[in-house]
Design brief:
Elements (H helix, E strand, L loop, with lengths): L2 H10 L9 H17 L9 H12 L11 H27 L24
Helix pairs in contact: 2-3, 2-4, 3-4
Amino acid sequence: MNDFTQILQSIDHGSTDPRELLPVVYEELRQIANHKMSGAANGHTLQATALVHEAWVRLAGPDNASQWENRAHFFGAAAEAMRRILVDHARKKKSAKRGGGAIHESLDEVVITLETPSEEL
């Protein structure tokens, strides 16, 4: 039995903190992040390290820490978390580009003034 499996079993039994798993899986998570980032557009502002850390926060949260069945399940969940993070990041960036941060005003509150055309010819 390898380190990953032992730590995973002890997490299931509640005797180990999920944070002990990170040093064991960090390099593989970085490889997954680099692979995911290779398909991203140039000029992407999110770095692979930040992607790994954000995915880890989602994976090791209190609701998710003991739900992994095995190594493949864990890395599949990690890849999915990274994909969702990249999609969310792209959506936020695109919405900001399209006026996502603009202040919305109701048309009822806006006073529209019309100029009357002059009758000069």
